[in-house]
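Hey, resending since the last one bounced:
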Amino acid sequence: MRIVTRPDFDGIVCVVLIQEAEKSTRPVLWASPDDMQRGLVDIQPGDIIANLPYNPNCALWFDHHYSNQIRHPVNGLFEIAPSAAGLVYQYYRDRIQKDYSTLIAETDKIDSANLSLNEILTPEKYPYVLLSMTIQDHVLADAPYWDRVVSLLKKHDIDTILHDQAVQKRCQTVIQENRDYRDLLEKHTTLEKQIAISDFRDLDIMPYGNRFLVYSMFPEATVSVKIGFEDASKKVVVVKVGRSILNRNCRVNVGQMLSYFGGGGHKGAGSCKFPTADSDKNLGRIIGILKENEPEGSIVVKVRRQDQDRRGVQDRRKSGPGSAPKEGMPEKRKGERRRDQEQRRDWKRATKWKSIKITL
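The structure tokens again:
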């Protein structure tokens, strides 16, 4: 069986567990969620997908992202959970001899962003947090390093891993990158209502660093929006949205919201990308939704209507579709329309999906 996963810390721990349970020796296929959603990853019969969107060709699927839910059962396990690795561990518990409970607890904490202020400001004092920051999924040439971390986690404790020469070098680089990233955040971030907006579009490539740092620098913010170009061609804009883990007053389901813009993620964090030509329109809608801060499951996302398309209630009643009663039928009143669950034209209501536990 071949393992297909994304190169973040959660994905790496998924590989550790699946390889031990399945005794798999085939090279891991590292893939991005965006490529999976666009059908660019060659999923073959027998593949095990973890921490990525579902593909019907796979033999097993493990995931925990809100936006990746499907409505039919498949082999594997899906739940809204702190990490995909925790689900893999739950599924294979009887086939894994080594005790990985500490690793799973740390992965749950890191992937669900359940970190303290000290862990945000000084990750070098917290071994698992620092190790997770050395896994940077935007650098595809790092695949040999990802494989190395998998091998180290299977054989050694965290203190031994951090003394590995390759890991130690990465940790030193990450610590310096975080210092530089703080300076970039100060220069490029503005606070708009309760939203910390970091716009890096005047740079050729979006910078990377401690993604939680912005919350400590802007404690008034309940959510952050990070904007930048995918590459130096500047043809595609990448947007990353995250609820603050220090000021927990954002009620928007981020993964659900971004799914309307071709992306997805968790309730608390997610990303999407779109052509630069569409960026002003889409960013305006995303920031508008975050400003409204509606509770999860009740967000109304404008699909095609623009502000200039708005009409008064009387105008909609006069000219809207279905406004004129059919011959012999009484005109519906407002309360009756609600009971019939009619929706306004060109609007789509996002509903809260229930978690589905999927087992063999």
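The mean pLDDT is 85.

Sorry for the duplicate.
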